[in-house]
Amino acid sequence: MSPSSPPFLSRTPPASTTLHASIVHMVVILFIVIVGLTKAYTYNLAPLTSLGMRRIFSSSAILFFAYIGFNVISSMKKQSRKLTKTSPSSSSACQSRSSVTAFSP
To answer: From start to end residue, where is composition biased (Low complexity) (predicted)?
Structure first.
């Protein structure tokens, strides 16, 4: 691609675009959760509440941050210069940090 080509033809979106996409993803997830809670029957939650609400919310938080972390990693891969070198090491580092955090007491 020539240096004088318009920015909308570039392969990697600007950081503001990925930020906006992340915000849209979070809004969609919150919308789904809110609509789901309005349509939920409380008697379906009885098997889950035996685990305790603290465990339910901590599990939900882990899943939420895993989703956001994956989104950040995939966005960073698009902007990386040495993709084949940095991508595997960053992915494995994030997975190991997540594993240690999730399974620590």
So the answer is: 87-99
Sign of CA dihedral 18, 23, 26, 32: negative
Report the distance separating Cα 65 and Cα 2, nearest Å: 38
Place of tokens 């305790």: 52
Q: Where are the domains of the chain?
A: 13-103
- By residue count, the chain amounts to 105
CA 86/CA 32 separation, integer angstroms: 34
- Kindly report the backbone phi and psi dihedral angles of residue 43, in degrees, each rounded to the nearest multiple of 5, phi listed first: -70, -20
- Tell me the pTM: 0.39
* Helices marked H in the chain: 15-39, 46-49, 53-79, 83-103
Widest CA span in the chain: 62
CA angle 100, 22, 69 (to 5 degrees): 10
